[in-house]
Automatic annotation (TrEMBL):
<dbReference type="InterPro" id="IPR036890">
    <property type="entry name" value="HATPase_C_sf"/>
</dbReference>
<keyword id="KW-0902">Two-component regulatory system</keyword>
<keyword id="KW-1133">Transmembrane helix</keyword>
<dbReference type="GO" id="GO:0016020">
    <property type="term" value="C:membrane"/>
</dbReference>
<keyword id="KW-0812">Transmembrane</keyword>
<keyword id="KW-0067">ATP-binding</keyword>
<feature type="transmembrane region" description="Helical">
    <location>
        <begin position="6"/>
        <end position="29"/>
    </location>
</feature>
<keyword id="KW-0418">Kinase</keyword>
<keyword id="KW-0808">Transferase</keyword>
<dbReference type="InterPro" id="IPR050482">
    <property type="entry name" value="Sensor_HK_TwoCompSys"/>
</dbReference>
<dbReference type="InterPro" id="IPR011712">
    <property type="entry name" value="Sig_transdc_His_kin_sub3_dim/P"/>
</dbReference>
<dbReference type="GO" id="GO:0046983">
    <property type="term" value="F:protein dimerization activity"/>
</dbReference>
<feature type="transmembrane region" description="Helical">
    <location>
        <begin position="95"/>
        <end position="113"/>
    </location>
</feature>
<feature type="transmembrane region" description="Helical">
    <location>
        <begin position="119"/>
        <end position="141"/>
    </location>
</feature>
<protein>
    <recommendedName>
        <fullName>histidine kinase</fullName>
        <ecNumber>2.7.13.3</ecNumber>
    </recommendedName>
</protein>
<keyword id="KW-0472">Membrane</keyword>
<keyword id="KW-0547">Nucleotide-binding</keyword>
Length: 377
């Protein structure tokens, strides 16, 4: 029920009943009435003033009581009609229709023993029925409008909550994309730098030309890492930027990736059995490159110096299979760089977004990373 000030509502109801009673008494005084009608009108008017506020808390019961009074005296008619309107505004339509019919019946009884002068009983009853019909319709319309407004408010609230949820999801996706991009671009490069820096640390007795060569590789790698970092930041700052706006690695870049790992001192064996590599979709090729890159990075971090076997095979109409294996490090070996475990998580999401699947396991003393990517014909 709509909340309102009870004192204001009760005062309004009393005013309606009082004005109705005074109006009825005025009409009676001008037209006369049956014996004892004045006492009935006074009593009905007083009772109507008392019962009118009850309609606000007990609409149906209060209105029916006022309808009984209206059957006895026109002094209760304003309060009875007010009750019918209130019921129509607060209760279901069948209930309001039944109360309205009771009001018409009560006034039909009133018209039998208190006929109106200047109008036949039939026309008077028709006017009463039309008036009650208008009250019921007005109340139902007001109730429907109130329900519509409440529904619109609820929809607006839900839309606002949904918008907030979508914004939060978009922010989370953006953060995930940023983390994945930073990891894919920089983790490989920085792990290479760590390998060269480790060689400088543990081989201080190396020939000067070897030290100079390693230092040059570190310097070049730092510059490359900075360039890649600037590219990533420029892409993330531009909301309209897409991955296609800058060169992206593809399957054909795998030999260069493997050669880079070999230059860093790693032992990497690549077996490429891909048929028609140019036919592979660019998105699948980019994902395959990231899978191999992550596999080599993990091997370099956790199993430095261990040989890595990379096998890539597939053809159009089947699927592209990537298999990376490296022996586990000896017990007690310290990783070259600490891992967070987010690399494989992000890589799994990347492969799934490409429609593929990625698995990793430890079996037979080696770590295995295997990915399947769809390759439509």
């Amino acid at each position: 029920m709509e909340q309102r000030d009870p004192r204001l509502a009760a005062g309004s109801a009393v005013v309606v009943a009082t004005v109705g009673a005074l109006g009825a008494l005025t009409v009676w005084g001008r037209s006369g009435g049956p014996p004892g009608a004045l006492a009935v009108d006074i009593a009905a008017g007083v009772l109507a003033c008392v019962l009118a506020p009850v309609v606000l808390w007990r609409p149906v019961a209060g209105t029916l009581a006022l309808t009984v009074l209206a059957a006895l005296s026109p002094a209760a008619t304003p309060a009875a009609t007010f009750g019918a309107l209130h019921v129509a505004q607060r209760r279901r339509f069948p209930v309001a229709l039944a109360v309205g019919a009771a009001g018409v019946a009560g006034h039909a009884v009133q018209g039998l023993w208190r006929p109106e002068g200047g109008i036949t009983y039939g026309w008077w009853l028709l006017v009463v029925a039309l008036a009650y019909g208008a009250l019921v319709g007005w109340g139902a319309l007001a109730q429907a409008r109130r329900a519509l407004l409440a529904s619109l408010r609820e929809r607006a609230r839900r839309a606002e909550a949904e918008q907030g949820r979508r914004v939060a999801e978009a922010r989370m996706l953006e953060r995930t994309r940023m983390a994945r991009e930073m990891h894919d671009v920089l983790a490989h490069r920085l792990s290479l730098l760590a390998t060269y820096a480790g060689a400088l640390e543990y081989r201080p007795d190396a020939p000067p030309e070897k030290l100079a060569q390693a230092a040059g590789v570190v310097r070049a790698g730092v510059h490359q890492a900075l360039d890649e970092l600037r590219e990533v930041i420029s892409v993330l700052r531009d909301e309209d930027a897409r991955d296609d706006d800058r060169p992206q690695p593809v399957l054909a870049d795998l030999p260069a990736l493997v050669a880079e790992s070999r230059d860093a001192g790693g032992s990497v064996q690549l077996r490429d059995e891909v048929v028609e590599p140019a036919a592979l979709p660019a998105a699948a090729g980019r994902t395959a490159y990231r899978v191999v890159q992550e596999g080599l990075t993990n091997a370099r971090k956790h199993a430095a110096g261990r040989p890595v076997r990379v096998a890539v095979e597939g053809r159009p109409g089947t699927r592209l299979v990537i298999d990376i294996r490296n022996p586990l490090p000896p017990d007690g070996a310290v990783p070259l760089a600490p891992g967070t475990g987010t690399g494989l998580v992000g890589l799994t999401e990347r492969v799934q977004l490409a429609g593929g699947r990625l698995d990793h396991e430890i079996a037979a003393g080696e770590f295995r990373l295997r990915a399947w990517l769809p390759w439509p014909a």
